[in-house]
Design a protein that fits this description.
It is found in: Membrane. The protein is built from 6 helices and no strands.
Length: 167
């Protein structure tokens, strides 16, 4: 039982690792660069993001544990469902460095569109395995939909400055 507790905690904490690193590395860019971007009126307050991501990462991490446990650990049956999960998590972690670090709105948009596809694929692959795990991913899909719309609007409303051009 002690070992299962460790797995539960490990899977639940894992998504937070990349999320925290993404925030830590890019934290100085947020007040400087991000605040100057033109954003839509429906853009959530900066204060909401850490709370939302804490809840979302916890839910998806625990959901991934449920899938792993139901499939008997790292079995051949787990390759696709957990592979999709891992791939979408990697793209999730890649978004902040692209958006805030590189300030590359186009690449951040491409990243989040691919992330959306993989997250939906993850949820679809999990549906037959564990309904609770699937439901735990629904808030994440909702937040991703908002984040995707926000990324599109910021990309459209903040054209890339060409070198040597000033306005």
């Amino acid at each position: 039982q002690g070992r299962m507790w460790a797995y539960t905690v490990g899977f639940t904490v894992l998504p937070h690792v990349g999320g925290f690193l993404g925030w830590f590395i890019n934290r100085k860019e947020i007040p400087i660069w991000y605040e100057k971007l033109k954003k839509p009126s429906w853009c959530p307050s900066r204060k909401i993001f850490p709370v939302a991501w804490t809840v979302l990462y916890t839910g998806m991490g625990y959901a991934s544990y449920l899938i792993w446990n139901d499939l008997g650990g790292c079995s051949s049956k787990a390759i696709i469902p957990l592979g999709l999960y891992g791939a979408q998590l990697a793209l999730n972690w890649a978004w902040p460095p692209l958006f805030f670090g590189a300030r590359n709105l186009k690449m951040a948009l491409i990243d989040i569109l691919c992330l959306d596809t993989l997250a939906i694929g993850t949820v679809c692959s999990w549906y037959r395995i564990n309904k609770v795990a699937t439901l735990l991913m629904v808030p994440y899909l909702g937040w991703l939909a908002m984040a995707t719309c926000l990324t599109i609007r910021i990309w459209k409303d903040n054209p890339e400055q060409k070198p040597g051009k000033s306005e």
